[in-house]
Write a structure and sequence with these properties.
The complex is a heterotrimer of chains A (625), B (110) and C (267). Chain A is an all-alpha fold and 625 residues long. Chain A has helices spanning 7-10, 17-22, 27-57, 67-74, 96-132, 140-159, 178-181, 189-217, 230-262, 287-321, 328-341, 357-385, 394-411, 414-417, 419-425, 429-459, 465-491, 522-555; strands spanning 273-274, 277-278. Chain A has a domain at 563-625. In chain B, helix 2 (9-40) packs antiparallel against helix 3. The chains are: A mainly alpha (625), B mainly alpha (110), C alpha+beta (267). The interface between B and C is large, with 52 and 51 residues.
Chain lengths: 625, 110, 267
């Protein structure tokens, strides 16, 4: 049957530059678009963090080198135009509002514009259709639209730095009423943030619909659910989380935009007074409503951040241990349970809002429950290492490091999950350390692993092994140097989001005539400077990676086969790079995803699509699935 | 091949039968609308009963639209599974938020 | 390169791709409107006594809109069934009626919105409140002119529509008699827009978002009816699938309104 609706795609080679690289509907091109855009945003978010860490370690001092430039960008309302303590010529002390903008945007950019687009948009798009044997996503044009919404959302977010009042400054969590009354320009950075979020949410919703439909409908013959690579399961659950958890935030965003632009009071309580004047609004709203709607997304969002990385790490561990993953079935059930439970734990972010002990106990219970499947996944991956002949390739180094780093991050979440201990730790640096351990040396290491792993499939060349190991070693050291001290700062009571690094709460030691004031000790505050240095070094450690990434495109060691890592999954059974349509011959799957070191086979791996041989020890189904 | 499934005698008869069903359900829905309006203005003594009555009628109408107009009543298991999860989570959002907020321990701003 | 199961159903799921896609999308829409309905419930339950209005909206117009949408749901199905019977002309007629219903719905909604924006509440210096529809023909800037209004002594009297025996009259109020705003930004004159109260705020957001979905659904139905109708000749099954998918979205829009109408207009 002549498929006229796809006629434009039939002659793919004849597409011009714009249709091939910019307005492409090919999932691999879209995946790369997401990847590059996300890495650029990650770099930008990292720079914001460096500016903040400077201010924290040296409050009241001008930003070195960049002070004048920042003054030009932000204007004297946000950043000091007067000479700082260091003397004349040293302009550019970050003001409190600017610090808050950097904080809110660092969080927003890292979560919504960097990590999720990289983990879900880039890796998900590039790898998933390949691993299920599909020619593309189920809805290629919707896929393109999803990237475009993301791009527009990102532009809107960046643009917000340049408008009067600057970018959003009420935290990435945008709590009302601060989000509405904190900046009285109309429109303001918060308006842009909300518009940007609506674009990003729509991007994710379109992506989620595409992923789920693709995984359900386009699995190749023989690829039943329990033969799926764990990476695909992880992306599948992630897509469901995005699909069902994002809309309430979109609704909340619309409501907050109404508060911001139309003068409604969805989240503004009655009797609100700002700077001595009663606000002329109807009142009757509830700030808590915003928090519930936000965290209803916020919690599943953190699983969106981690699950793709777990998927990537699983693939790499199986491949570099030359063994099947231990407990594949348990891992699948666990990831499904995590997906389900993640919708009913959200208020553990709100223990201090006075919700009453009964409902707090409910959320505490579900929170404790959800740690179980997470531990099952981590344990299965650890046990998978037992008795393995490990190849310490660069992807494997990152994947191995992921395990203890995610372990630390996860375990340190337990005192936060119990509402009693959370009373002391809520909104302190302990929380920052906890979630950064999961996302930074956790997810981001998983993503680095993925980049080094799939790079040869996309480009036909390896990244430099030596510089990859340098990148790994340095990043590992400095990630820990940054975030480990923060646990101690948090336990000492140092709060989040303090633009002076906690100086206001510095302890005043007892002296003759005064008992002193308890507060943050000199040691705790002194850690700020060490963290700053570690952050700068972490930034410098990324230089070998960036150079390696671009240099290897044309100068890296060429692969000698289409399957250089000797992997079993379908993504490695394609030409390099895969052509439009992905597979050059009809595909059919005969076995599970991790048939490594199967006794009796000639090689130490058997691809999923390799037909059964007449071997008495091996039959169609994987022995261990 | 295109036209075999469209317009053949069997599917025409099927389609006509379905159209009758749609028309009947459509009329039922319109009657339901009238019922909702009428019930809203009856004084049952407590507003709660009005609310419950309105919701029961709305849910019935909703069930008719979803079940027959959207063909859910004969739809595949997969779709059901997605919708059941969705309804569970939406209800959870509504119910748990209500429970968390409507508590005497919240200090009201006056 | 062809995407499998774009038109024919996949054997093990029994579904074609777009049907899976649209139901997933509708699931996300259930969460969206579910969150808004939750917000409505919470705002209402937590509202101070005497601050939540009843019967502020025109029930007749709301009921007419409900009937119009139900009718359009039926015609969408009739259109789809006509296509399955290979009767393109009948499909065209039925979808045409669907689109007319959509326009009617939006027309009535615009009328309702305009009515609210013409309804003003004015606080006087002597503590009284004037409430009614503004006289747009007034040119005297020193006066605030109502074409039909009533005077009440406190705000909670406005929570119910005027009783049957209350006559609404023409009222001209000198600006000097109107209370000034505490924040110095003019007088205490406010119309019944979303800023007026939590009830109106959630009303406008819920019905506004719903109206956007009506527009979106109507645009898609129109596109298939008009510009994209050529696919019927080249690939009828694909065309029928697209019509079915757009119909599912349309029914969902109707479904939301079935809940919106009693919740906002009647309860």
């Amino acid at each position: 049957m002549q498929d006229s609706a796809h006629a434009p795609e039939a002659h793919h080679d004849e597409l011009g530059f714009w249709r091939k690289y910019i307005f492409s509907t090919d999932h691999k091109v879209i995946g790369l678009q997401y990847g590059i855009t996300a890495l650029l945003f990650m770099f930008f978010g990292f720079c914001l963090m460096l500016l903040m860490r400077w201010q924290i370690a040296h409050p009241g001092q001008a930003v070195p080198l960049l002070g004048k430039l920042l003054l030009k960008i932000h204007g004297p309302d946000m950043i000091s135009a007067e000479a700082s303590k260091q003397g004349a010529g040293a302009m550019g002390v970050i003001g409190a509002d600017l610090y808050n903008s950097y904080g809110a945007m660092h969080g927003t950019i890292m979560v919504f514009l960097a990590v999720v687009p990289l983990a879900f948009g880039a890796f998900g798009n590039f790898v998933t259709p390949l691993q299920i044997g599909a020619p593309d996503m189920a809805f290629p044009r919707v896929n393109m639209a999803s990237y475009q919404f993301y791009f527009i959302g990102g532009v809107v977010m960046l643009a917000s730095f340049f408008i009067p009042g600057g970018a959003a400054k009420a935290g990435w969590t945008s709590y009302s009423p601060l989000a509405t009354v904190g900046d009285l320009h109309r429109p303001n950075g918060q308006t842009f943030w909300l518009i940007g979020m609506v674009c990003l949410i729509n991007s994710s919703l379109l992506g989620a619909v595409n992923f789920i439909t693709t995984i359900i409908q386009l699995r190749v013959k023989g690829l039943n659910w329990m033969r799926l690579p764990f990476f695909v399961w992880a992306q599948f659950v992630t897509a469901f989380l995005l699909l069902l958890a994002f809309p309430p935030l979109e609704a909340a965003g619309v409501l907050q935009m109404a508060d911001n632009l139309l003068g409604t009071s969805f989240f503004l309580p009655t009797g609100l007074v700002v700077s001595g004047t009663a606000m002329h609004v109807s009142g009757g709203g509830s700030p808590l409503l915003w928090q519930h709607l936000f965290w209803f997304l916020g919690h599943p969002e953190v699983y969106v951040l981690i699950l793709p990385a777990m998927g990537i790490v699983t693939e790499i561990i199986a491949n570099n241990t030359r063994k099947p993953i231990w407990g594949y079935r348990s891992m699948v059930y666990s990831v499904l349970v995590i997906g389900f439970l993640s919708f009913i734990v959200w208020a553990h972010h709100m223990y201090l809002t006075g919700m009453g002990t009964r409902i707090a106990t409910f959320f505490q219970t579900t929170t404790m429950m959800i740690s179980i499947p997470s531990v099952i996944i981590l344990t299965s991956l650890l046990i998978s290492l037992w008795g393995a002949s490990i190849r310490f390739t660069v992807p494997m180094l990152f994947a191995l490091a992921f395990l203890p780093m995610f372990g630390i991050g996860g375990l340190t979440g337990l005192p936060l999950g119990f509402n009693v201990s959370d009373i002391a730790l809520h909104d302190t640096y302990y929380v920052i350390a906890h979630f950064h351990y999961i996302v930074a040396p956790g997810t981001i290491f998983g993503l680095f692993a993925g980049i080094y792993y799939w790079y040869p499939k996309a480009t036909g060349r390896f990244m430099s092994d030596f510089w990859g190991k340098v990148h790994f070693g340095l990043s590992f050291i400095f990630m820990n140097a940054i975030f480990l001290p923060m646990f101690f700062q948090g336990m000492a009571g140092m709060s989040r989001r303090m633009y002076d690094g906690g100086l206001t709460y510095a302890e005043v030691p007892a002296s003759a005539g005064s008992p002193g004031i308890p507060g943050l000790s000199h040691f705790v505050l002194g850690l700020n400077n060490k963290i700053l240095w570690a952050a700068v070094c972490l930034g410098l450690s990324q230089i070998p990676f960036i150079i390696n990434f671009f240099w290897s495109i044309n100068h890296g060691k060429k692969v000698t086969s289409d399957n250089p890592w000797e992997a079993t999954t379908l993504d490695w059974q394609t030409p390099t790079p895969p052509p439009h349509g992905n597979f050059t011959k009809p595909m059919e799957v005969f076995r599970g995803p991790y048939e490594y070191s199967v006794p009796g086979q000639a090689r130490d791996f058997t691809a999923q699509n390799e037909p059964d041989q007449a071997q008495p020890l091996t039959h169609g189904n994987s022995v261990r699935s | 091949m295109e036209h075999a499934a469209v317009g053949d005698a069997h599917s025409v008869a099927e389609a006509k039968k379905h159209m009758r069903t749609y028309a009947i359900i459509g009329v039922a829905l319109m009657i339901g609308t009238g019922l909702t309006v009428w019930a809203a203005f009856i004084n049952f003594g407590s507003r709660e009963i009005n609310i419950v009555a309105a919701l029961i009628i709305a849910c019935t109408k909703g069930f008719l639209v979803a079940g027959f107009f959207m063909h859910l009543i004969s739809e595949k298991k997969l779709i059901y599974a997605v919708l059941v999860c969705t309804v569970f989570f939406a209800t959870g959002l509504m119910y748990l938020t209500l429970l968390s907020m409507n508590h005497e321990s919240i200090v009201q701003v006056r | 390169m062809e995407i499998p199961y774009a038109v024919k159903a996949r054997p093990d799921t029994g579904l074609y791709n777009a049907k899976v896609g649209i139901w997933l999308f509708l699931a996300s829409e259930v969460m969206l409107f579910g969150a808004l309905f939750s917000s409505y419930i919470l705002l209402r339950v937590n509202a101070d006594p005497g601050t939540w209005p009843l019967h502020l909206l025109n029930v007749k117009l709301g009921a007419v809109n409900t009937i119009v949408l139900i009718l359009s749901s039926v015609t969408v199905l009739f259109g789809w069934a006509s296509l399955k019977m290979n009767n393109f002309r009948a499909y065209r007629v039925f979808q045409g009626i669907t689109l007319l219903c959509a326009l009617t719905f939006l027309g009535i909604k615009s009328f309702e919105y305009r009515d609210k924006f013409n309804h003003y509440e004015v606080l006087l210096k002597n503590g009284m409140i004037a409430d009614g529809h503004i006289n747009r023909a007034n040119t005297d800037t020193n006066l605030f002119a109502f074409e039909a209004a009533r005077m009440v002594t406190n705000h909670s009297e406005l929570m119910l529509p005027p009783a049957a025996d209350v006559k609404l009259e023409e009222l001209k109020i000198p600006m000097a008699k109107i209370k000034d705003r505490a924040d110095g930004k003019g007088k205490e004159i406010e119309n019944y827009g979303p800023w007026h109260s939590s009830y109106l705020a959630i009303y406008f957001v819920l019905t506004g978002l719903h109206a956007l979905h009506v527009i979106g659904g109507a645009v898609v139905i129109f596109a298939l009816w008009g510009p994209l109708a050529g696919v019927w000749r080249t690939d009828p099954e694909r065309y029928i699938n697209r019509v079915e998918v757009s119909g599912l979205f349309w029914h969902f829009v109707d479904l939301i309104w079935i809940f919106l109408f009693p919740v906002l207009y009647l309860l």
